[in-house]
Amino acid sequence: MSGSFQQITLEGGAQADFFLLRYDEDGRLLSPRAEEDLKRRLPGVSDVYLFSHGWNNIFDKALERYRSFINGYMEQRRTFAIPTPQGYRPLLIGIIWPSTSFVFPWEAGPDIAAAPDPEGREAAEVEEMLELVATSLPGAKRPEFTERIDGHTAIGRADALKLAGLVLGTLRSEADPDDGSRAPTAKEFLDTWQVLEAGAHPVPADGDEIGLVPDEEHEDGAPPVGGAPAVAADIPFDPRSLLRAATVWKMKARAGDVGAHGVSPLVGHILQQGGPRLHLIGHSFGARVLLSALATAAPARKAHSMLLLQPAVNRWCFAGNVAGTGRKGGYHAVPDLLERPLVTTFSAHDEPLRTFFHLAMRGSQLGEPEIAAFGNTDLYGALGGYGPAEEPGRTAKADAIFPDKGRYDLESGARIIAVDGSIEFDGQPAIPGHGEVSRPVTWWALHCLTRPD
């Protein structure tokens, strides 16, 4: 594509350019003519809104989500007569990156348990996962990996160890970029695999985490460090659980690559001295795209704002001291690259980020060197599921604010404001699920960050 994708009609009949930029899985720009045209139009622009979608979005779906958010945001401005900055002339950019996958369609309410599907959806998911993971392995290892999985729903421990070693060595060999934890060993991952297997059974009525038998709970309801899998040690392993975890690892890494290698140069260009105000809005793994882009851009000046919607990143990613390890989170510096505090949402109704992410992303001995942290949401929980790890004076939590019912305190000194979307308005959660983020409370959050008053 080249040039502006379409014109968005603003208040009073003015027009704003809406560009779509496509990147490949390594972050290579596939829309160079569109980017050239975009850069030519930046002079005279007052505000740039840069959006990045999350997982499982084909082009049409991503475009639909961008339009939904933009239209809701503009309609809310008209409804509540929200002022715009003087000389307001916005430009909008939607990132299109290869996140398409049947597995974990988080925006549509995923079937994490992989229950039988008479219409064949699960079979299609498994085929896509197998291809995605197998093609990531060195060529010599692909036949062995495929043969051990193809057509199997249960394998023995020896085969499971071999498969885990093959995948970990390629897709999870480095320290986690969010929290710095070492990758698990194949044996450590088999323990997690068993917990994932337990997730195929109903969650107990008392709300315990998937397949865990807690002897005591943290304040947030998370299972204790050291909780053991509620499964027998000799159970067979379903290779689909490995494929699901491996797909998470691959997509997480891909989002970081797209941000650091693809979107980052554009962010740096926009933030050249004297350019427009930059507002970054990312959902799910799209939050990682934009965090990586800003973190690596070495900007000449600060971006104006960042709104993360149910981000699929570790809750320690902004920390100055990750779980007492002395390490800084991978995006510790990002809030200080913004004029206004970073605003990020979380919700207890985000099932994938509350019940799966911390299992898939469990590393090796983070924070508790002698204890296996099964299902520990304090250490491995997602930012969009549990909010950021709190640091006095740097982070603040606030209930989601309904339109025209107040504003977030952007002057308290906190650099990160975590917005709790679990609270209800008129009997409905403010953020009822992972993909339901184009909502009155999220449009309002962006208005609070961007309005001049």
Give a written overview of the molecule.
The protein has helices at residues 32-41, 59-80, 121-134, 142-149, 157-171, 186-198, 239-270, 285-296, 351-355, 357-360, 377-380, 383-386, 440-450, and strands at residues 6-9, 15-22, 47-52, 90-96, 277-283, 305-309, 342-346, 395-399, 416-420, 424-425, 428-429. The chain is an alpha/beta fold and 453 residues long. It has 2 domains: 6-100 and 252-359 and 367-450, Rossmann fold (3-Layer(aba) Sandwich), CATH 3.40.50; 107-251, no CATH class. A 9-stranded mixed β-sheet has the order 1-2-4-3-5-6-7-9-8, with helices on both faces. A two-stranded antiparallel sheet has the order 10-11. Residues 102-116, 200-232 and 367-372 have low confidence and may be disordered.
Low-confidence segments: 102-116, 200-232, 367-372
| CATH top level class name of the largest domain | Alpha Beta
Q: Mind describing the biggest β-sheet?
A: 9 strands, mixed
Can you tell me the CATH topology of the largest domain? Rossmann fold
- Give the ordered list of helices and strands: EEHEHEHHHHHEHEEHHHHEEEEH
Task: Give the integer mean of the pLDDT values.
Answer: 84
What is the alpha-carbon Rg in Å?
22 Å
How far apart lie the N and C ends? 37 Å
- Side by side, the strands of the main sheet go 1-2-4-3-5-6-7-9-8
Beta strand count: 11
What is the share of helical residues? 25-40%
